[in-house]
Amino acid sequence: MELNGRSRVIIEAAAPEVDDGAFPAKRVAGERVLAEADIFADGHDLIAAVVLHRHDSESEWQEVRMRPLVNDRWQAEFAVEKLGFHRFTIEAWIDHFLTWHRDMKKRVDGGASEDELRVQLMIGLEHIRNAAARAGARDRRKLAVFAATLDGDDPIDDKIEDLWSDDLLALMWRNAERRFVTRYDRELLIEVDRPRAAYSTWYELFPRSAAAEEGRHGTFKDVEAQLPRVARMGFDILYMPPIHPIGMKFRKGKNNKVQAEPDDVGSPWAIGGEEGGHKAIHPQLGTIDDFERLVKKAKAAGLEIAMDIAFQASPDHPYVKEHPDWFLMRPDGTIQYAENPPKKYQDIYPFHFESESWTAMWDELRDVFAYWAGKGVRVFRVDNPHTKPLPFWEWCIRDLKCEYPDLIFLAEAFTRPKIMYRLAKEGFTQSYTYFAWRHTKEEFTEYFEEITKPPVSDFFRPNAWPNTPDILTEYLQFGGRPAFVQRFILAATLAASYGIYGPAYERFVHQARDHGGEEYLDSEKYEVKHWPPADDDMTELIAVVNRIRRENPALQQNATLQFHETDNEQILCYSKSAGDNVIVVVVNLDVHLTHSGWIDLDLEALGLETGRSFQVHDLLSNARHTWHGPRNYVQMNPQVIPAHIFRIRRRVRTEKDFEYFL
Amino acid sequence: MELNGRSRVIIEAAAPEVDDGAFPAKRVAGERVLAEADIFADGHDLIAAVVLHRHDSESEWQEVRMRPLVNDRWQAEFAVEKLGFHRFTIEAWIDHFLTWHRDMKKRVDGGASEDELRVQLMIGLEHIRNAAARAGARDRRKLAVFAATLDGDDPIDDKIEDLWSDDLLALMWRNAERRFVTRYDRELLIEVDRPRAAYSTWYELFPRSAAAEEGRHGTFKDVEAQLPRVARMGFDILYMPPIHPIGMKFRKGKNNKVQAEPDDVGSPWAIGGEEGGHKAIHPQLGTIDDFERLVKKAKAAGLEIAMDIAFQASPDHPYVKEHPDWFLMRPDGTIQYAENPPKKYQDIYPFHFESESWTAMWDELRDVFAYWAGKGVRVFRVDNPHTKPLPFWEWCIRDLKCEYPDLIFLAEAFTRPKIMYRLAKEGFTQSYTYFAWRHTKEEFTEYFEEITKPPVSDFFRPNAWPNTPDILTEYLQFGGRPAFVQRFILAATLAASYGIYGPAYERFVHQARDHGGEEYLDSEKYEVKHWPPADDDMTELIAVVNRIRRENPALQQNATLQFHETDNEQILCYSKSAGDNVIVVVVNLDVHLTHSGWIDLDLEALGLETGRSFQVHDLLSNARHTWHGPRNYVQMNPQVIPAHIFRIRRRVRTEKDFEYFL
């Protein structure tokens, strides 16, 4: 019989555990991991349990004792500090000494006979002697003292008195008899990212539109000139669409016209020309040196450059000639272009991932990331990852993170939920969300409850974008400025990571190309735009909100997000807290009308005492109110500002707080 | 690279799957298994998927094609017929022909050019020719006909017309190109039991109390005489407490007195005397031949005998002398008796499962079951399985079921939920429940929702008992006859399997030994009782309700249990359905007062048309009512009968159903 039938403890349902341990759970450096499991055994014996954990680069396990919560659930806590993969498992065993100790107490309290107690003391003595035999010299000496008392001529009451010593319990724990230990049947991975993986503020701009003068193609140097402005608004990641040479063949014209005019600049996502492909830079943007300088300057301004990696090739991409086997050939000898019948995207060739040469192609695609990582880039926004095989991403990201554990990958997959989740499991650090298409109180509550709580939050980190160059929602098209302000505040306070596609957003650009569509009119995707300094935009508000995010740790995580009841369907109320820092956000979801109503705060969840007043400080208007109890009245005019971002001061002083009162 | 990166399909979260496949899901012979999984891939290609399944005794997989439901969930159905273990897994792949076929339709509908269509037809032709090459002679001939048309001089419209043929789709499916197939990473087990595992009606009696005359110790022959009575009440399992010799040392007296009188018979759970142990029969009950005859006679009466297996030994048990190493020795040389300090159970020695000789002990304990199975017993009620190691049960039950796949094990574990669930996962066929201690509408709803729906219902089969020899709830002690009637109807209609501890229940025995306790006064556990024929008991009602259960398949399963709203907290309403058979039960939970109120039926769930009247037939009172719409009025007097068991007739005839109306 292979089984050790004497290992009586069962360990089940450990957490965090993504898909039975098939994928790592995500945490950031400095976070404390709460490891849990159901642990139980037959009968009434007491159990001892430990979490074993270590960084993958270490060989020694660290051990933390677990404590029982309720209903056979056990927990321990450990910190993860080092980037990369941390792993843990659980061990548990019957602790016969503890069991004996508990029963001894019951016997004494139950008035057991002295005869019985003497037999029991013999049993206890044996436990202590065995522990001493296992112990190091120092503990052995201390245990010997306990043994001597139990074994000696002292009155039985004195012997028993000794048993209740915390010292004895600590000594016995340190030298516990670990017999018939059950070990959880797998080791679970924690992927430890840097803090920015969980809390980040993204700003997207097209470098070719960055020139100060109208009509000139922007350069990396022009982007450098924008850095102070972007930093002043409080962003920490500056994301640029692809910066590679753009194909000429089937190049798209303005507003996605099938035929480009001679001077049309094309879509940056039609990657590759005679100047090179995914490792080259569009000559009009600058040189590789210019790019590296931009990366450094950005860093100096507190910004990271995020690159856009789109795995597809224009017909002019060098890959097409060098690796025709990476593309699908049609029976007429032409290469299969991208299609979604009856729509055709002849300016783009997708990679053929069922190619015989797939391993070489995988290597090359991974090397694209590695190349730019070598130039100092640590953040990648990946275009349409859901149209490339999911197993590729697991391999690619895992491989890259071995060398660069500080990499951040944002998955731009606006697709079905299970695919979005799978991409996150495969290794994407952050994910775009359905945020742009959530509008009602019910929709926000349901969606954010799902994506900010386990099991989803263990592997999926939402990044909320109210717009992108592809997504100008009808809400923004028709909601006027209040819509822009409201969606911005929602994104920035609901999600620890959010981003905006910049100049178009901060200037309230809202004209769509087609009725019923979400494409911008005269989209930057197909032409160079000019964004001269504006008097009237959202930059001030953006700077204020991003400062609020920086100053309030509550807004830098999602785990504590909680929705509160309101009596008006147009008023959304939610809170986030981090220790003493408590933020309550109230938003008027109606972009046209002033709304007022009563919010009903879950005071306990906010750490507020029921009978005590508390102060709410609106960080947007700087107004301060004293509230009492859960029900409070709010009113918001969308034409002024459609939201409150309240910081809660839990204790408001009363006369009782002053010395002279006492 | 070991990974086949060209297998692009992902298969996740298959069902039924208990603890990631660590344990089998339970079904009964003749049931149809709904196998499901999340199946998806990158991009927009169409997927094909099959379930592979086989009984463990077969070597060939059967295949069933899966169909997509919603949200990337796929499903297929297969029947399990043969007892034992059935296993299944899933395979899926990109179906390039289907993808091409779908896109061809879109191209044609989108008005693609004839040039484009010709290229596409070439691609389709290749798919068909490849399929023909894979096919057997018959399919090959048929595919050749399609290929000839596509390849020939027919007008392009005719060629295209051919593509929409169902025959072509069926041929292509049968000979599909299964390249880069993804197989689910595990095989999942289905434990197939006989139908009684899921639907059973238990009656418990003490054979020693079965004598017709007062003062005589009952025998198996006396039990034979009871068979017609028990069968008439509609039970199908007759369960007897342990029938083994009872120890003399520390024998308990009446009402669990520490010192027995000389003529006290002791507790049947203090197993083992000089006449033998777990494989012997108490001499006063009869011989092994008597027992075997009882088993046969019971079978002839439609009843199975269930034995009680309690793994513990009296100090007189032969094991104590023969295998002292199976018990724990104390330092004073005595054997450790059962204890729950400060309580002592000196008449019982627990087995020491951490013994060095554990493998020999496991073998012997399993052999106890095997011995009785050899005598024709197929149902075992296992006493306190949660005080024996959980891994033992998995091994023991699995091993026994290889030889006797028709065995049924009922776990008598009134312990913490996770342990009860684990026992069920380890192999127990049925489990006692907390039913006896659930009283309010909220409690019933919450508890039965939990135990009758996946994931729990995949491994845990509830058996509801309103009483047992150990459990006389305060509800029964103080609720009078209405309490007995109400709890009986609830058990029999909420759970497909239920049981009563017989004579005491049907005669409304309600006197407890101690205030605040649940022990019967003058319990049969410690003395011989006499149950002369009674004029006034519940046997008629029991017979009626058990007949209703037999005649209504809806009550023979739990999967469709659904609770319906009522406007009175004392009125519980729930339904079960099996095809056309729909039962709605309404219970007045108040044992003192008549209650009336409105029930609000979920008509859609019941398969009722909203606008059409339906008939409800109370199977208890035989009254019939015509109801219309979801809200209906009910009133129940607990002194008369506290419940309705309605059978729904979905269609009530109206004038439109008669020919002369037309």
- The helix-and-strand class of chain A reads alpha/beta
Helix content of chain A: 25-40%
Q: Describe the global form of chain A.
A: globular
Distance between the termini of chain A: 74 Å
* Count of extended strands of chain A: 30
Assembly type of the chains comes to homodimer
Biggest beta sheet summary of chain A: 8 strands, parallel, barrel
Kindly report the greatest chain-chain contact and the residue count on each side.
A-B, 58 and 58 residues
**What is the radius of gyration of chain A computed over CA atoms, rounded to a whole number of angstroms?**
31 Å
**What is the overall pLDDT average of chain A?**
96
Order of strands across the widest beta sheet of chain A?
A: 11-12-13-18-19-20-21-22
